[in-house]
Specification:
homodimer, 527 residues, alpha/beta, Archaeosine Trna-guanine Transglycosylase, Chain: A, domain 4, four-stranded antiparallel sheet
C-alpha cells in the first residue's frame, strides 16, 4: 500500500518542509496541497515550498538556515550541497532578557520515591561510587569492583550498584594551566552526585598530580546520606572527609593487598548506603539533564519538542532541568539571551559562548565542526538547522541560571549548563553538575547510557523505536505521523521520569547493563 | 643494624649527589669521604658536595639543573625549594649530528619465537583486536568481547586474547581541525599493530564523523597473517579490506542481533588467527618501546641506565627501539640533535619540539607542567633533572629516525617517537607506531600495562620491587647498592625481552590480567 505523501512545515514563515514518509518520496510525488516533487527526497530531508532564486534565504523554524547557492524551484530537494551556511550571530547587541516567558501555572501533586541526603538533595539510585584520582589506578579499581559486586554487594540488598569512576585525568596533564579547573571540578563534583549519598571513597596511586587533598580539599564533601541508625557499622570510620586507599602506601605488599584494602573500605560505605531508604519527595526535587545525540531532521519535530514540553512540566513542578551543548545553541544565542530571566543570566550565556568560540578558534575549528555524516544523511543540512532543533528541548520557560562546564547546580528552574555537544562529555559534565536522571533523544540511534544516573532514551522515528525495541524507552516518532501529539508524548515522558526516578521502572540500558565510560572535558594541554 | 651512609654522584663534574640509603639519612650522617649532612636528606634526594653561593650552578649528570636560590653549604639538602629552574635550550643553533656514536659491534645469534606476518612484521602475541570507529559502540563491543572470550576463544587455542580497542574519539570532535590527524592515524595504526596479524575488524555506529572508510581508506590494510591453510574457514570473507559491523544497519533488530553480528564476524577472524604459528626470528625483528613513569631520582641511576644498555644491545642486534616523551627530553634537545644520524633526523627532532612548545603555549603551559608531587618526593627537583634521567633510556646509539605522534615506524635502529609523557598516551601512541613489546621503568610504582602488547616493568628501587613483587618484572634497584651492575641488569632485561616476546614467559601484568584503557592524544578541540 502506498503511503500518502506527507510533509511537516514547522512555522508558517518557513519556505522548506520535511518529508515524513518512511523511505522518502520519489520524483513526481504529489502532496495534498498540490506540491509536486521535482526529484527524489529522502525521509527527513527538506523540500522547497516556494521557488528560490540564487542567494534567497532558506527558512526553517522561522530562522534563516542558509542561502540558496543556485535557483531552486519549488519541489526541489534542499540539502547541504545547495545552500550556504550563514555566519553565526555576533555576541554583541544581543537581546537581553527581553522575552517574557509564557504564563505557566505551577504543577502540583506530582511526587517520586527518592533517596534524600542530609543536604536536601535527592538521589534516584543508591550507588557506591569509587572515585579515582588518576588513570593509573583504573584497572586495579575495576578488578576490585568486579569482586565487590560478586562478593559484597549481595549482602547489601538496598544498594543498587557499585561503580568505578574511572577517567583519563590526574597525571600527565598540565594541572596548573588556566583551563585545568574544568576536569578537576568535574571529577570532584561527580563524586558528590546525589545518587552516591555522600559516601565518597577515593583510590589514589600516590605520586600523581591530582593528589586526593587537591581533588577533595577539606570541607568539600557536604552531603551525606540521611542515615539514623548506624549502630551496626562497627569499626567503620564515620567521618565526613571521605576515605582514600593509596596504592603506593607502604602497607601494600602485592596486588592482592591493594584489592583487599579497596574491598574493606568499600564495605564500610556499603554498610552505610544500605541504610538509605526511599521516601516520597515532590517532583521539585528532581534534577534532570536533557541531551540529544545521533540527531536527524525529526529530532526537532518529534522527540525534542516532546522533551521541551516535559521540560516545561518539570519547571512548572519546581524541578531543575539542564540543557547543554554549546555548538548546538550557538546559532540561537539570541533566543537564549532573550529568554534569560535577568541580565546576569544573559551575560553568563554570552560569556560561555565567547569562551567556546575562543576554544574552537585556538584549535583551528569553529561551530561548523558540529554535524556528522549521519546528521546530514538524516536531513540536517548544517549546524544552524541542527541547533534550531536542539534548542527546542529547553521548552519555553525563562532560563534561570548558567553553569560553566562541570560546575555544581544550586538552584531550581531551567539551567543552561554549558558543555561540549559530544554525547559522552556532555553526559559526564551533567552528572558532575548534579543531575539524577538523564533524558537522551536520538534519531539515528545510539546505545548511549550512563552508569551513574538512569538514562531514558527517546527515539525520533518509529522505525528506530521498532528496530531498537530493547534500547529505546520512548517512541516519539508517532508525533510525525499524527498518531500522537507532542503534549501526549511529553506527558508520557514526564510520567516515565517519575517511575524511573522512583526505581519502579528500569530503563532499557539498565536492563541490559549498558553504560559509557566517563569522558572528561580537558581543554588544557597534556604533558 | 645501621646502614653505611652511601651516595651516588653520576658525573665527576657534578656538585650534588643522591642519597642511596633506604629511609634517607639524618643530620650528622658522615659518608666515607668525610662529607657530613647538615640536615636530614630523604632517600633519592640530593646533597650538596661543595659549598654553593647564591646563584651558583647546581650540576647533575654534568648538566645545570638549576641555580642556588641562597647559599647552600656542602652537606645541605638540595630540593626544588632551594633552586631556580634554568630556561629551556633554544631551538636555534643546536648541534646537528655532531656526535659520532660509539663503535658498537653487531650482536648476532639472538632470536625469539614470533608470529611473522605477510608484510614481514613479526608479532609477539596472537590477539584478535576489535577496532571501534567511535566511542558510542564501546560498551556494546565490550559486551561482545566478554561473550567471545567465554564462548569462542576456547575453540581457538592458538589465539592468546580478544581485545576491544575502545577509545573516546570518533564523534563530538573537530575532525577536520589541523591536529585531528593525530588521533585518527593513532586509531588506524593501532589496528595494524603486528600483534593482530592483519585481521582488522571494525565496529561502527553508522552516523559518526569517523566513518569506517575514513578510518581505513582502501589499501590501508597491507599486512596479513602468513596463513597457508585456510581451507577450513568456510564462508568467512577472506578479503583484506577489513570487515565492519554497523550497529545502525537496518538488519539489526534489538541488542542481541548486534552482539550476534559482532560474534559472527569475530569468529571468522579467530579461525584465521588460529592458524598463526610462532617461528624462530632474529632479534632484529623486535620493535620495542621504552618509557618511564612514576619516576624518582633512582630512575636515572638504576632502571633507565639498564634500559639504555639493553637499548644499545637491541640496536646492535638490528632491532627497532623507540623512546618518546617530549617534555622529558626537551631540556636535553641538544643531546638528541647531536646524536641524530643525519641533519634530516636532527631537523625532525627540532620540528617535534617546536610543535610541542607551541601546543603547550596555546594552553597556557610549558614544560615545567611535567614533574609530579611524587617525582619531587622521590628527589627529582624539576623537569631538567627528570629529563636527564629519562633520556638515558635511549642508550648511546645514533638516532636513526623520528616519528610524529601515532605514525607507523618503517625502519630499524633507535627511533625518537615524539609523544606526550603521559604514560597512557605515550603507550597508546607507541602501540600505534608498531611496538610489539614495551619496557616501562618506575620508581614510585604504577600498575601500568597494555592489553595490546606485553609490558615488562622495571623497578628503580629494591624496596618497590620487594613490596610490589607480583607487579614488577625486574629489579634494577640492586644497581644502587652495588649488588649488580648496569650491564648485568641490562643483559637480564634483554634476555627477558626475548623470553616474553617468544611467549615463553608472561609478564606480571599478563598473569594478573591488568591493563590500561587506550588513551588517545587529541590536540584538536572537541565540539
Amino acid at each position: 500500500m502506498e503511503q500518502t505523501p506527507l510533509y511537516i512545515r514547522v512555522h508558517p514563515n518557513d519556505n522548506v518542509a520535511i518529508v515524513v514518509n518512511d523511505g522518502g518520496l520519489g520524483e513526481g510525488a504529489v502532496f495534498a496541497d498540490g506540491l509536486r516533487l521535482r526529484e527524489r527526497v529522502p525521509q527527513g530531508h527538506k523540500v522547497a515550498l516556494a521557488d528560490l532564486a540564487e542567494g534567497d534565504e532558506v527558512v526553517r523554524y522561522n530562522v534563516v538556515i542558509g542561502y540558496a547557492l543556485k535557483p531552486l524551484p519549488k519541489g526541489s530537494w534542499i540539502n547541504e550541497h545547495v545552500i550556504r551556511m550563514p555566519s553565526p550571530p555576533g555576541l554583541e547587541d544581543l537581546p537581553i532578557a527581553t522575552t517574557r516567558a509564557p504564563e505557566m501555572a505551577p504543577l502540583e501533586g506530582y511526587t517520586f520515591e527518592g533517596y534524600r541526603n542530609s543536604d536536601g538533595s535527592v538521589g534516584t539510585r543508591n550507588i557506591l561510587a569509587i572515585t579515582t584520582t588518576v588513570q593509573c589506578v583504573a584497572d586495579v579499581v575495576q578488578h576490585a569492583v568486579t569482586r565487590i559486586k560478586a562478593e559484597l554487594l549481595p549482602k547489601y540488598p538496598n544498594v543498587d550498584d557499585v561503580v568505578s569512576l574511572g577517567h583519563t585525568y590526574g597525571c600527565g596533564v598540565a594541572i596548573d594551566a588556566p583551563d585545568a579547573m574544568v576536569p578537576i571540578r568535574t571529577v570532584r563534583n561527580i563524586a558528590l552526585n546525589p545518587n552516591f549519598g555522600g559516601e565518597v571513597m577515593m583510590v589514589s596511586l600516590g605520586c600523581e598530580k591530582l593528589q586526593p587533598e587537591r581533588l577533595m580539599p577539606p570541607g568539600t564533601i557536604p552531603i551525606a546520606a540521611a542515615v539514623d541508625d548506624v549502630a551496626d557499622i562497627g569499626d567503620v570510620a564515620l567521618d565526613q572527609n571521605g576515605d582514600v586507599v593509596v596504592l603506593q602506601d607502604e602497607s601494600h605488599v602485592g596486588f592482592q593487598s591493594m584489592i583487599t584494602s579497596i574491598m574493606k573500605m568499600a564495605e564500610g560505605h556499603l554498610k552505610r548506603l544500605n541504610n538509605r531508604r526511599r521516601e516520597t519527595c515532590p517532583a521539585s526535587d528532581l534534577v534532570i539533564g536533557v541531551q540529544c545525540g545521533g540527531s536527524d531532521a525529526f529530532s526537532g519535530l518529534t522527540a525534542n519538542p516532546a522533551v521541551g514540553f516535559a521540560t516545561d512540566l518539570l519547571v512548572r513542578a519546581g524541578a531543575t532541568v539542564m540543557f547543554s551543548e554549546v555548538t548546538e545553541v550557538r546559532d540561537g544565542v539570541d533566543q537564549l539571551t532573550a529568554r534569560a530571566a535577568n541580565a546576569d543570566v544573559a551575560q553568563a550565556i554570552i560569556r560561555e559562548m565567547q569562551w567556546y568560540d575562543d576554544y574552537l578558534k585556538r584549535g583551528g575549528a569553529d561551530r561548523s565542526a558540529n554535524t556528522t555524516p549521519g546528521n546530514k544523511k538524516g536531513g540536517l543540512s548544517n549546524i544552524v538547522e541542527k541547533a534550531m532543533g536542539s534548542i527546542i528541548k529547553s521548552g519555553n520557560s525563562a532560563i534561570s541560571g548558567v553553569l560553566s562546564p562541570g560546575e555544581k547546580v544550586n538552584q531550581k528552574g531551567l539551567i543552561y549548563a554549558a558543555t561540549p555537544a559530544s554525547d559522552f562529555i556532555c553526559g559526564t559534565l551533567q552528572v558532575a553538575s548534579g543531575i539524577t536522571l538523564h533524558v537522551f533523544t536520538t534519531g539515528r540511534g545510539t546505545p548511549y547510557s550512563l552508569a551513574e544516573v538512569p538514562v531514558i532514551k527517546v527515539a525520533t522515528r518509529s522505525d528506530l523505536a521498532r528496530r531498537w525495541h530493547d534500547l529505546m524507552d520512548i517512541n516519539a516518532g508517532t508525533i510525525a505521523t499524527g498518531q500522537s501529539s507532542i503534549e501526549e508524548v511529553g506527558w508520557e515522558l514526564f510520567r516515565l521520569m517519575l517511575e524511573v526516578a522512583s526505581g519502579r521502572q528500569q530503563t532499557c540500558a539498565e536492563k541490559l547493563g549498558l553504560h559509557n565510560a566517563l569522558t572528561l572535558f580537558n581543554p588544557a594541554p597534556v604533558t
